Amino acid sequence: MYSAVSATAAATSDANRLNISLEPKVDSNKLAAAAVRGALAVALLSALLLGARPAHAQTINDLYNPPEYGDPLGTGSLAGLVADGAGNFYGTTNNGGLYQSGMVFEVSPNGSGGWNGTTIYTFGSGGADDGSEPGYGPLLLDNAGNLWGTTESGGANGYGAVFELSPAGGGNWTETTIYSFTGGTYNYDPINGLIMDSSGNLYGTTLNSSGGGVLSSGAVYELSPSDGAWTEQIIYAYPRGNRAGLTMDYAGNIYGLGSVGDQPTIYELSQNHFGEWVPTVLFTFPASSPDYGPQGTLALDKELNLYGTTFGNNKKSLGAVFELIPPNNRKSKKQWTKKVLHSFQGEATGDGAKPYAGVTLDKSGNIYGTTAFGGSGNYGAVYELFNYGDGSYGEAVLANTSDASGIAPYGAVILDSAGNVYGATAYGGSYNLGIVYEVTNN
Fold this sequence. Notes:
The N and C termini lie close together (12 Å). This protein has a single domain (7-441), classed as YVTN repeat-like/Quinoprotein amine dehydrogenase (Methylamine Dehydrogenase, Chain H, 7 Propeller), CATH 2.130.10.10. The chain is mainly β. Strands 8, 9, 10, 11 and 12 form a 5-stranded antiparallel beta sheet that branches. A 4-stranded antiparallel beta sheet has the order 1-37-35-34, with no helix packed on it. It has a 4-stranded antiparallel beta sheet with strand order 3-4-6-7, with no helix packed on it. It contains 3 helices and 37 strands.
């Protein structure tokens, strides 16, 4: 591994950045940009073609390493990135910034093989109703170039907020808090990101932590625009919260992580003829704390198989990647089948450990993700599960984030058309502010 990409690889990477497309903007087929990661088409190749897949050389590059004093001023990115069609990346930090409330940043190619970082909004600067502390969800980018997101706290009531950032020309952005959570059993701590349907309605989840690390009363909310205002309604509530976001399929059905009592579940929400959201539990995990069960936002392939991660419980597991397969008759009441695709082994074997984020699928059915721990030095890893085409997968650790001085990649990754991988870390870098990294496919 190298701490900087070679000149040849940098030139190749610059040429490819114009085609970054993993996080598409919202279109009319009811797939929001934040949900599309899980709905990429899977074109499985034959075992003959994939069975002898060679190992690709990978190089990790600290694409942007924030300075101690300068721009951006944020600290600690817990979320993944979103990319526009011009090769720019957007992300959030959970804290730092001028008001120590976090911020939204942009990282853009400078035309000379390097990258510039810019703070496009600092939370705490927007008045009494401004949000504070963006959480684990990536930003949502729509067709007009607006960015949408959530904050865990702040807002008019101190329970979190939903915001929109709109480009105002000249590199400036206008921020609007479109909704402040009101508190109560299901109405605070929106820790993950948003998805949007074709009508412009927003959907997200609340964590509702009761303090001391105890999670309780999670919920799915819908925000609907009307006459310049936004109306919120809780469309599904469950007794134990979690840190996962939502995924939407082409028909507008929503998938997420919930619970029945203390047992973590995977559910589907679909609308009936009256427009009411009806929950169906697809799979129930063994009774345990949700922190040790399913963890990250689910991904969806074109056959509507679901993919996710479990965090592990330290004693018996360091986490895993799983696939959830529907019954032959999807309308039956049978539970879906869970298949473990990879169990992480941790630092002792050079493998990753404890994934916070969900996974990203490419067009060939290969799976990419991050672990917050494990790898060389136990600083986290970026991994790929390559699809053999016969239902089995092999694992490759693409990079140890410590190789680029980054530590703890909590967020998911995105890909460009050349197969390069991009993400951010919560810590590390020259001043422990985290980094934006690239893993190049050499």
